[in-house]
Amino acid sequence: MRAEVILVRHARSTLPRPGGPNEYRRPLTEEGLAQAERLITDLADVEPSLIASSPYLRAVQTVEPFARALGMPVRTGHDLREWDSGIAPSPDFVRHYIESWANPHHARPGAESLHQLTARATAVLTSLAREHQDEPVVIGSHGTFVSRALLGFGVDSVNHSFVHAMPMPAIYRLRFTDRGVEITGPGL
Question: What pTM value is reported for the model?
Fold first, then answer.
């Protein structure tokens, strides 16, 4: 199999806050909207067969300018969403997040473990690669989703510090070959 999946971590978004927009409705900031426009240039060498995104607004808004420039729609997919952590916006969020990375099989009630996210991310990305062989696919997504996908495809250096240092936006290119998945991007 030969395929390329280009993961785009969303641009700068508003911060989560109690009583604020939920994860599905949290938008990009003005800076983030400008960053999304610049992705048109950053991805100028890509002629995708599909532009897909997490259904979360900030991910869709990140890839929309690129899709509009190509006259393509953005297809959203529930399996491309960010980690369903079960952690509410609170001062304890960072502590809970770090604990989750230390114990990736742990899931909060009604939520998803990081191990489950890794399985979901690698499965959906592998499926898209198979569906679009020899045609690049661009996907708007999220830091934890991208990180767990990279980990699932063999990048052992990924941890919570990697996610914290990941730029907004960030572009990771996953090239699926018969020998495995070759990955390039910031921090690798």
Answer: 0.96
